[in-house]
Amino acid sequence: MAATDKLIAGYQRFREGYYEQHKAQLQTLAEQGQFPKIAIVSCSDSRVDPTIILDCAPGDLFVIRNVANLVPPLESCDSFHGTSAALEFAVNELQVESIIILGHTHCGGIKALMDTDPTALPQTFISKWMKQLENVRKEILENENCTTKEQHYHLCEQKGIVQSLANLMTFPCIQKRVAAGTLKLHGWCYDLNSAELFAMQQGSGEFQKIS
After folding, report:
1. What does the radius of gyration of the chain's CA atoms come to, in whole angstroms?
2. What does the pLDDT look like over 96-146, one tens digit per residue?
3. How many whole angstroms separate alpha carbon 106 and alpha carbon 47?
4. Cβ contact 149:26 at 8 Å
5. Of 190, 192, 141, 182, nearest to 161 (Cα)?
6. Rounded Cα distance, 122 and 118, in Å
7. What CA–CA distance (Å, rounded) separates 183 from 99?
8. Which CATH class is domain 39-209?
């Protein structure tokens, strides 16, 4: 069976099942627009689906996905900025109340960053994208208490979330709403093995399991 055949079969089940059961809700979303309260920056990894992990319905989350769930700092250069554009829309137009950076274990982008000398990499879109964590990579490799590859990956996954939270605050629209108390920022990390979710604690920066 072709991969797309599986999708078509799934679509047919959706039409006959979920759609019929939630038809009124879905039509309301179509006609009246979306009003999610939460924007979530998640990895493109196929194993990490925020709507499934958090048991959400259509219209609950405004999801922004990219490699390694990174938020780049505000840039003024004349280029294409998909993540920044989505954040701007979520904050200014949708008026979301929270932004969550959702990282995860076993992230391929993080592994590639930690395992490969960036000077030896060809200039691909992915290598350029991951260079925004080069300072994190150097800090981890210089950490004498962090010696194994697994420790490197885990620490980088967490520090990547921390840096993305800091980068969110380079956007004036986010700064303004955080200062006004109308927008909150959160850093979460999902463990693929245990299905446990960890939240970064304000002040300490440590990640604690969400019960």
Report:
1. 19
2. 999 999 999 999 999 999 998 767 667 889 888 999 999 999 999 999 888
3. 10
4. no
5. 190
6. 8
7. 8
8. alpha beta
Cα 128–Cα 131–Cα 137 angle in degrees, nearest 5: 150
The type of residue at 118 is P
Residue 39: what are its φ and ψ, rounded to 5°? -105, 140
- What is the secondary structure of the chain as a DSSP string? --HHHHHHHHHHHHHHTHHHHTHHHHHHHHHH----SEEEEEE--TT--HHHHTT--TTSEEEEEEGGG--PPP--SSS--HHHHHHHIIIIIS--SEEEEEEESS-HHHHHHHHS-GGGS---HHHHHHGGGHHHHHHHHT-TT--SHHHHHHHHHHHHHHHHHHHHTTSHHHHHHHHHTS-EEEEEEE-TTT--EEEEPTTT--EEE--
- The reply to whether the predicted model has a pTM over 0.90 is yes
Q: What percent of the chain has pLDDT over 90?
A: 85
Provide the Cα torsion 83, 194, 3, 62; round to 10°: -30
Separation CA 124–CA 132 (nearest Å): 14
